[in-house]
Design goal:
Shape: globular
Number of helices: 5
Strand content: under 5%
Strand order of the largest sheet: 1-2
Radius of gyration: 15 Å
Order of helices and strands: EHHEHHH
Length: 125
């Protein structure tokens, strides 16, 4: 692992973040597109953020992004079992509050897309 700044990956991170914000705001009534595609894109966004500041051997960044998504899903499952709830409504929207196996499928698709992007970003190798 090596710290660095990659402007191309940072630009990707900003662009993907804009898409996520648009999905969360404008896409309020878009149903599965907002939730499923948003989860796919979230993994790609985390990968881009990591790629902008970290050099890791491929495919470690996509794996870390996937692990983060799966960790959030596991936390949702545990919180549902224990009855614990995130107090902030904004965090509930960002992190979600209900575990769903389709989210795991979306994270896996996002992982594949992040792996493809990993091969295209300069400085990935």
């Amino acid at each position: 692992m090596r710290w660095r700044f990659d402007a191309v990956a940072a630009a990707w991170a900003v662009g993907v973040f804009v898409v996520l914000v648009l999905l969360a705001t404008v896409g309020d009534g878009w149903g599965w597109i907002r939730s499923f595609v948003g989860d796919v894109i979230a993994v790609v966004w985390v990968h881009c953020v990591l790629a902008s500041v970290l050099w890791l051997r491929p495919p470690m960044r996509p794996l870390l992004a996937l692990a983060l998504g799966l960790g959030v899903e596991a936390a949702q499952y545990v919180s549902q079992l224990t009855g614990w709830q995130v107090a902030s409504p904004v965090l509930r929207i960002v992190l979600g509050s209900t575990p769903d196996w389709l989210d795991v499928v979306a994270y896996l698709i996002g992982f594949v897309l992040a792996c493809l992007l990993e091969r295209r970003l300069p400085g990935s190798k």
